[in-house]
Every structure is written in structure tokens, then in C-alpha cells.
Amino acid sequence: MTLVGGVDRELVDRLVAALEAGDPVVIPTDTVYGLAALPSVPGATSRLYALKDRRPDVPLAVLVAGPETLDEVSAASDPRVTALVRRHWPGPLTLVVRRRPALAVWDLGGDPGTIGVRSPDHPLVRAVAERVGPIATTSANRHGQPTPATAAAAAASLTGPVAVVADGGPRAGTASTVLDVTADPWRILRTGALTAADLGIA
Fold first, then answer.
1. pLDDT per residue over 169-202, tens digit each?
2. DSSP single-letter state for residue 57
3. Cα 144 vs. chain centroid, distance in angstroms?
4. Helices within 37-113 (DSSP H only)
5. C-alpha neighbours within 13 Å on the C-beta side of residue 153
6. What are the domain boundaries of the chain?
7. CB of 178 within 8 A of CB of 163?
8. Cα–Cα distances in angstroms (integers) from residue 192 to residues 51, 108, 173, 179, 195, in the given order
């Protein structure tokens, strides 16, 4: 094991190789275990949906390396949103933003004009995202079922094997709060670890 900045670089290499090959992986985040695939690889998110036994029209969010990478996926610039991500990223806040037109080809389900994006407070995920770009991610569980707290249980809950299971220890956090900032007033779509008061929109 080679640790750089507290991150297992060999594990990062394995995750990057699997994702770039179009293979879904199980990764720890700061909240729960996630099932991840690279949206820039054709067919990768279809495999993710199949493993989760989930309809392909249910939207997937993407994880990014940090606040400075929001512009990689967002088509609009808003100083209020910039201030929000600087305050709460990395952390349990997913923003629904206008998607860059060039990324409309990404198969993320839902509205191709928008995208959910988050920077998780987990160094492994951010290290992988620095290498491969935005990572399509959903909770690692069968659709409609609770998300297991361990990597092994999360992987076992899926309909088939994944290329890499990254064990980050027990994960039993609260899911991220999902905030739609595509129109005024902003709207919370899911209340999670952050409340409206935390976000300053109460």
C-alpha cells in the first residue's frame, strides 16, 4: 500500500482503471457507500442502473473533486451558488444546476438540461475525481432498500459483482441535502445532513 496524503494511491489506480473501462465500482463517501460509474464512458451508467435494479429515468448525481470543479458541469455562473459551495463543499450538499450543453449526452436519467453535483468530504473519492473527472454516483443498494453500512454488504446487495469494492470502514451517515438552484426561489428537493437554516434559505 502506498499512501499519499492519507490516500491509498494503488487503490486510486485500481478505481480509475475500472471506471475508465466502463465498470461500476463501490466507493465510500462521507455519508454512505456509493455505486459509481464514469458518465463519459458510453454504457457505464446503464450497467450501474442494472446493478441497482433501478429504472434508467431516475436521475444520477455526479461527484467532483472540489468547489473549483463546479464550472466543469454547470452552464451558469451565480455568485450566490459559488459562495454556497465554498462554504459547504466538500460536504453533504448536492446542487441541481443547469448542465453544460456538451454534457447532455451523459446518460444520467432525468432532465438532460440539469445535473446534480456534489463534492464529498472524502479524500479517496476526490482523488479519483481529480483523475477521471465527474463520477456518476448513487447509493450502493438495491433501489428502494436501505443502504448497507459496510462495503461488503453494499456490494452484496447489488444484482451482480462490481469491478472494485473500496472498503472505507462503516458508513452510516445521513444522505446529502439536495438543493435545486436552477430557478428562484431555490428549492430543497431532499432534506439530508444540512437544513434550510444551515444553507441560509430558511
1. 999 788 899 999 999 999 999 999 999 999 998 6
2. T
3. 18
4. 44-52, 79-88
5. 12
6. 3-193
7. no
8. 25, 21, 10, 10, 7
